[in-house]
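Hey L., structure's done. Input below.
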Amino acid sequence: MERNYALAVQKRENLYRAYINKAQIVLQSSGGKHTSEECQYLQRAAELQSEMADMTIGEERNHHLREKEAISAKVIAILKEIDPKKAAELEGGKGEGKKTSQTTGGRGGDNDKEKLDAMAQTWYKEAPNHSFKDVSGMAELKDKLQDCVTNSNCEELLDFLKIPRLNTYFFVGPPGCGKTYIIEAFANELVNNKDKEYKYLSLVGSDIISRYVGDAEKIVTRMFEEAENCAPCIVFIDEIDGVCRNRSQKSMPEYAASITTSFLTGYNRMKNSGKSIIFIGATNYPQRVDSAMLDRAEVIRVPLPDKDARSNAFRMQFEGIIELDDDICYDDMAEVTDGYNYRDIERVTSNMKKSIFEQVMQQAGNQKDAIELIKFGKFKLKKKDFDDAMADFKPSSKKDIIDAIDKWERNLNNDSYLIDDEE
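Output:
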């Protein structure tokens, strides 16, 4: 039922835009002169905004009411030129509408807007320091994302072929598999694209829902509006399962369903804007995300790092710092760490570095001489250092979360969405 509800809102949004476009066409065909036909299309568009206001709550409802009033004001302005009597009749019945406008702005008024403005500025991030060349493995995924970067420079051809400007990706995988890292590398490639510089907006779902009840809808609405206004841009929401929750969950709180509805409505409006936007969500728990969002995105499964990726992860921790002894190499380290994620590898290497620190300080007596021993290869990383670190380390458990993702993926491929009953 919830999915039908979202589709009903989307249908009205599409009709609304169609009537606005028809009104513009009529105006152009009449040589810029206003006509009653133009007014009819605009009035129907205003009625659709009113219908969507009745179907939504919170800030989404306020948005539709504001749109309705703006269009109605435009209709009256036109009628004053072509039919003053009719304009006077319509103005006579606007008192209640004006009152609604004053009472639905939400608590805080201008203060709320100032807070949202300040919050929105924190979403803009500098280009991450790493790019695709720093990402080991994931060759197929990097090729896909690189194609997206290349295609972003071909707007004329995209428009000619009527290919949507909005690209939506949904990154799924267990914790520590490198989802955020490759997304940031993707952002680096786009922001540093000289032909078309993208802006980079990055948010965490848990930050949005940690606000007071009712504020989250305003934040979500503002987020999508911000994306439209600053396009071309890339928008990344980590932990998207927190802000676009599956409305099929049992005992779903009303406020959470409201946030999801606001999220989908805002996404649809952004999509229909035709702006150059790349939207990415990431989660460890795809079964907790609403199916309507999954329908709108290309799902990308990010696995745990393979052997080459693990080898490179160890190399990045030690290369240029300390030489390896003849009894160990990075591929050896990768061979025995199957099933490790990047966080596991970081903890292992951290333990190795602590051991190296203690040994070289004991041998040198002071840090200056210790650095000299390492720099000139008189102290090397040995197999024993790696073995000792591994003996004291237990990798994080991933089986349950991987099994859940596998089950979700099977259901997704069978057009049957997994319902997660967790709150």
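The first strand starts at residue 124 and ends at 125. The radius of gyration is 27 Å.

-- N.
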